[in-house]
Amino acid sequence: AQRVTQPEKLLSVFKGAPVELKCNYSYSGSPELFWYVQYSRQRLQLLLRHISRESIKGFTADLNKGETSFHLKKPFAQEEDSAMYYCALSSFSGGYNKLIFGAGTRLAVHP
Amino acid sequence: ETGVTQTPRHLVMGMTNKKSLKCEQHLGHNAMYWYKQSAKKPLELMFVYSLEERVENNSVPSRFSPECPNSSHLFLHLHTLQPEDSALYLCASSQGASGYTDTQYFGPGTRLTVL
Known about the structure:
The structure holds two protein chains of two kinds.
Chain A: E1 3-5, E2 10-14, E3 19-21, E4 24-26, E5 32-38, E6 45-49, E7 60-61, E8 72-74, E9 83-93, E10 96-101, E11 105-110
Parallel strand pairs in A: 2-11
Antiparallel strand pairs in A: 1-4, 3-8, 5-6, 5-9, 7-8, 9-10, 9-11
Chain B: E1 4-7, E2 10-13, E3 18-25, E4 31-37, E5 44-50, E6 53-57, E7 64-70, E8 73-79, E9 87-94, E10 105-106, E11 110-114
Parallel strand pairs in B: 2-11
Antiparallel strand pairs in B: 1-3, 3-8, 4-5, 4-9, 5-6, 7-8, 9-10, 9-11
């Protein structure tokens, strides 16, 4: 079964501390993984996707197929990083992609 | 407004009411989606339309009825809902091109409360 697990509901850190939001997935094929972010009073938006292999707002995520993980990392958290973060797995068929979301992790960065 | 818009932003309805949620995308996309976001569950895919054809219906109760009259508009018709249907309903769209997974763009959502 396709599944995305984010084990932490809340991650609370101080400004400048490193951040790692965990994501594990279950998928039989070749996965495509995403991180979406929802800032307070804003819509859900794409943060990054694994095939881009880019860093957005200082965040990176590496797909580890052996551990079936796609953890999101940032070396130095900023207060503006406080938001809900959702890991998502995509399966493509029939001309569209179907996203399966994890439950989300709320990141709170304190001054 | 550009991107994906949803109306209304908030809706309160009784269990016997009939109402509709509207989504419009201004991105020229071919695929549109309805998701349900409730407090106790992860974001759940409800329906998918690709080129105005429904291609997925994730075992959603018949009291939710989607409609996609054209590639820019998506509706979710609501009838005799239950209090547990109270949630944030999100619309999304994507390019829908074949061969690769494209980014989904989300609307702001409609906060639905069923009394």
